[in-house]
Amino acid sequence: MYQKSHLKRTAVNLLFLLPAMALFLFAVAVPFVKGIRYSFTDWDGFSPVYHYIGLKNYTNILKDPSIVRPIQNSVFYTVVTVIVDNVLGLLVAMALKNNTKLNKTLRTFVFMPFVISLVLTGFMWSYMYSDVLYKIFGIKSLLGNAKTVMLGVCIMGVWRDTGYSMLIYLAGLQGIDEGYYEAAKIDGAGAFKRFTNITLPLLAPAITINITLFLGWGLKVFDYVMAATNGGPGRASETMALYVYNYTFPYNRAGYGQAAAILMMFAIFIVTGVITTLLRKREVDM
């Protein structure tokens, strides 16, 4: 009787999962498998006829000198946003840690940019740079200069994502027992020692989450650049994700684009996996 009831419950649970599983297979798994196959071809993305060319796409990518700039841009964006988002997020979380009405209101304002879509953020900041900051303050658009365009893109990311970082750190801070701080004060520890010896070690899980997430988001940044600059001026703000998009669609070299996408995926997987493993080892059980 128990076995029948258990099987029935399992069958019902699987039925609830079927729509999500079907959507995942249709939108993610099947295109991914097909993308691997196309990466070994010269498919242009439209023609029903294509030819298998082995590893030629992969070797051409590794020999392509124009791929250096997209890699540099992606790494620059990732390093800047990972550092700034985490530092600002932690500082704001510590400042707004107490559950007062004012702090709750301020948290909402800080978090609000995160609910705006990435594409809309790109359009908003493009308008800010060209029509607001320049006309009011005379500041030239960062997006119009090849030397400053990636800095302008980084500002978009930091503005939007700091609130998310703050939220993770708030959860971590509120989970720390105040008894640790009281004991440290009795022992004569100052604010800096309490921060370095109590707050940071016990925030290690939150730090791991934030760094891992922002690392993955940064290495595959696409929407900001696509909406605000489309890789310009020239190709000065082209990232790896935009590099993949350009070869897959505008340049009609889908096979090459798929190969670049697969290499990018493995690079992100390796980098995030290694860094997450190292961070996990430094975590302290609360």
Automatic annotation (TrEMBL):
Keyword Membrane: yes
CDD domains found in the cross-reference section: TM_PBP2
Superkingdom per UniProt: Bacteria
PROSITE patterns linked to this entry: ABC_TM1 (PS50928)
One GO CC term on file: plasma membrane
Keywords tagged on the record: Cell membrane, Membrane, Transmembrane, Transmembrane helix, Transport
Domain ABC transmembrane type-1: 71-275
Keyword Coiled coil: no
SUPFAM superfamilies: MetI-like
Membrane topology: Multi-pass membrane protein
Coiled coil (residue ranges): none
Main location (coarse class): membrane
GO biological process terms, semicolon-separated: transmembrane transport
Parts of the chain that traverse the membrane: 12-33, 75-96, 108-129, 141-159, 200-219, 256-279
Subcellular localization: Cell membrane
Record InterPro entries: ABC_transporter_permease (IPR051393), MetI-like (IPR000515), MetI-like_sf (IPR035906)
Family: Belongs to the binding-protein-dependent transport system permease family.
Protein name (database record): Raffinose/stachyose/melibiose transport system permease protein
Taxonomic source organism: Anaerocolumna jejuensis DSM 15929
